[in-house]
Amino acid sequence: MNVEAYMNKLGQKAREASRVVARADTGLKNKALLAMAEALDASRSALAKANEKDLENGKANGLDAAMLDRLALKPATIDTMIEGLKQVAALPDPIGGITDMNYRPSGIQIGKMRVPLGVIGIIYESRPNVTVEAASLCLKSGNATILRGGSEAIHSNQAVADCIRQGLEAAGLPLEAVQVVETTDRAAVGKLITMPEYVDVIVPRGGKGLIERVSKEARVPVIKHLDGVCHVYIDAQADVVKAENIALNAKTHRYGTCNTMETLLVHESIAETILRDLADRYVAAGVELRGCDKSRKLAPVMIAASVDDWSTEYLAPVLSVKVVSGLEEAIEHINQYGSHHTDAIVTENYSLARRFLREVDSSSVMVNASTRFADGFEYGLGAEIGISTDKIHARGPVGLEGLTSQKYVVLGDGQIRK
Amino acid sequence: MNVEAYMNKLGQKAREASRVVARADTGLKNKALLAMAEALDASRSALAKANEKDLENGKANGLDAAMLDRLALKPATIDTMIEGLKQVAALPDPIGGITDMNYRPSGIQIGKMRVPLGVIGIIYESRPNVTVEAASLCLKSGNATILRGGSEAIHSNQAVADCIRQGLEAAGLPLEAVQVVETTDRAAVGKLITMPEYVDVIVPRGGKGLIERVSKEARVPVIKHLDGVCHVYIDAQADVVKAENIALNAKTHRYGTCNTMETLLVHESIAETILRDLADRYVAAGVELRGCDKSRKLAPVMIAASVDDWSTEYLAPVLSVKVVSGLEEAIEHINQYGSHHTDAIVTENYSLARRFLREVDSSSVMVNASTRFADGFEYGLGAEIGISTDKIHARGPVGLEGLTSQKYVVLGDGQIRK
User: pLDDT per residue over A280-334, tens digit each?
Assistant: First the structure.
């Protein structure tokens, strides 16, 4: 069978399965999730064997150490997958919830019911644990899934898929509710993102290259996450201790995450008080500083920032620093050079805080808190399929609710339109 | 200037204006809307003159009577536009509303703030009153708009645009908050739907051909409305009087609307009681009936339905009729052949009603009410930019809220991530 026909078949089966999963009750979905956890636990040696194959191939194909590390299914990774399944089972079921039920003058009663999106296509790289993570969130939110992992993880993903199927079977749910693409042919991705008749939304999880390609070629909506160029703005009326703590935490807590600060903005009237000390602390932490002219005068340890620095997501111990004349300039800088991900102000001034919250056009806006909090778990979503940098449908951390939609429910008593 | 450069300039200006409109307070936006209404009232003769030009060109170009009628800006049409502006001014402002503000164990407080989408591109045909309708909804929801009307209405649209600009000016809002494309070059549409850097979402309003072309070629999200193949299912336990009233109203109240019923499904055990009488009443109303074999045995006035009939949006006094064995078959038929728009069950049975609401995958699902209620005004949205048949972002009637998004707001006291 050629790839096109194969993907069509997968799509058709996913569409059929999605109807069953959409109406599956909470108990059934949880039963499947917990049975998946048991199957993973019982299949540790099979998983290790499959993963070994991928690792050997990866080494032979010259994957670097970081990629091999992400590919490895260590016992601890499997523990985390099992724990994750139990956590998703424990989350409240979003499906079927009815809100805002109100009477209208015509006598009809109208509200909204939360419903699944249908079929979700997930495209991801290396890490085989994403297979379980994505499948569990989609299942709990009543969706069918087609998962397309990286070719380097094909054996591991198939072994994980086997455990997922055991879980679905134990709950009497259709095995096609979660399908893992079995071919490594790259044409499968091209087909998956261009069959709106079978797939309702695509969630790409991986590097920027993958996400840009998917967004460009997709014929279905994409919940995408591009850059995280996050800012902290230290206002003239900032509490100095809070400001230093937040600025350090936002940069140095972890370097490779999308909610890490990449540019620090400092009000000119507080720069003298705070910038030299902060610069010393960054340097002590091993952070390279790239500053504007004014910053460099105060802290000569900085090298000169170029205009590209303002829009760069370093994902590394590098920070750009700019002294600004006030809130106006800070907001303008953030809206122009940022990526609309997460931005914070440090201030004790009520009116400035209020303006920052309103006028900064980012998926998360914060007052006196570290940008590192922008995360589904920290926000209380219970889980996270990704962080959306889009405005349409889902913005910011996407949990179960982001994988659902709402339909209108109308209850009448024989009403007709006059 | 070529079209590409012209549209780029429009886009850039819209993006800039969107930042100002996003933070404009409610009073300012309402002032602009009411000033637009005044400008329209004061420009009746200029509007009539511009419209006369379009009508003459239209006649010369052989537009049919229906198109000329939609193109005409009669005094009553202008009254409706003025009334519409006042109504939108009176609607509550969705922007800035904060919901679900809760504390997390880390001490941060998190909620969601409703924000504009940014820049909305509207593509529409003939009716110049859409210019005002769309502009007012976008402005009230804090968005900038680029409007691209049909070339046949170019003079009327420009005259309306002039009134809109007067309104914006009176309120001190940027004139580029609402821009009406001044070229009739079709390449302008192609450009408008492929500049994600300037346009956040496209709303096409017009025939199916337009919407399909836009969805296929767009590089930005599209809030689209395709078919309305709506159903009424009369269950075995339906109240006969309610059933007949709803079935007649859903078909005959208006033929050309998307929420009009196109297929009637009847449970086999009630068909004998109800179908002959209903058929007589449809025929008396001038409706052509196309039935399945079983229906035709009971009401020989019907002609035979083909399989295409089940998925056809007639938008005309034509109805397809099918006798089904029960709820299961009805739901399957609706989910397979329908367009996921609006579907109703008539029944007195609690459990069947509940199953229908849950399992029918449509933007509006109803019990004992006419499908004709699926409408932004009837639902209490106050206004409607269209009805979405998508699941992503907005589903069903789209009012002001559908033109907005939500961002996360985090309030802290110096919290950092542990």
Answer: 999 999 999 999 999 999 999 999 999 999 999 999 999 999 999 999 999 999 9
Q: In sequence order, what are the residues at sequence separation of 6 or more whose Cβ sits closer than 8 angstroms to the Cβ of residue A79?
A: none
Residue A37 Cα, gap to closest chain B Cα (Å): 28
* Distance between CA atoms of residues B118 and B19, nearest Å: 8
Nearest CA in chain A to B195: A216
CATH number, position B25: 3.40.605.10
Structural domain total, chain A:
2
**Contact criterion met (CB below 8 Å) for B147 and B170:** no
Query: Of A219, A221, A412, which is closest to B368 when you measure between CB atoms?
Result: A412
Supply the pTM of this predicted model.
Answer: 0.91
Task: State whether ipTM is beyond 0.85.
Answer: yes
Coil, helix or strand at residue A229: coil
Residue pair A384/A363 in contact (Cβ under 8 Å)? The answer is: no
Say whether B410 and A106 touch across the interface (CB within 8 A). Answer: no
pLDDT tens readout for residues B13-45:
999 999 999 999 999 999 999 999 999 999 999
Name the B residues in 187-216 with CB < 8 Å from any A CB. 200-201, 216
Query: Looking at the structure, do residues B27 and B156 belong to the same domain, yes or no?
Result: yes
Which of B200, B201, B370 lies at the smallest CB-CB distance from A415? B370
Q: Report the gap between the CA of B405 and the closest CA in chain A (Å).
A: 6
Residue A93's domain comprises 3-223+398-410
CATH number of residue A366's parent domain: 3.40.309.10
Grouping H, G, I as helix, E, B as strand and the rest as coil, residue B179 is strand
